Amino acid sequence: MHRSGLAGSDEVEAWVRVGNDLEPYARALCPAIGEIKDRLLRAGATAAGMTGSGSAVFGVFRNPVLLERATRELERSGWIVLCCATLGRADHRRGLGLT
Fold this sequence. Notes:
Layout: H1 9-18, H2 23-29, H3 32-42, E1 47-50, E2 57-60, H4 64-76, H5 89-95
Antiparallel strand pairs: 1-2
């Protein structure tokens, strides 16, 4: 996820740093969660987190070059990588045809 697409990105990064209460348990069951988070942070993510109960791990990148490099590295290791950007409320409503 590239930071320029994030609405309220500073808040997102702060939220990710607070953490996920389920993460220690999910990491105990699936150590790859911690490994991927560590790799994302070493690759230049400003924050990395685990979704919900651990079905996905994500990184927030400020730099698109670092994002692309991390994407290639993880894909070469066999991981499925999806790059995306979040939408602000106005863009989301526009996309739904509500404005």
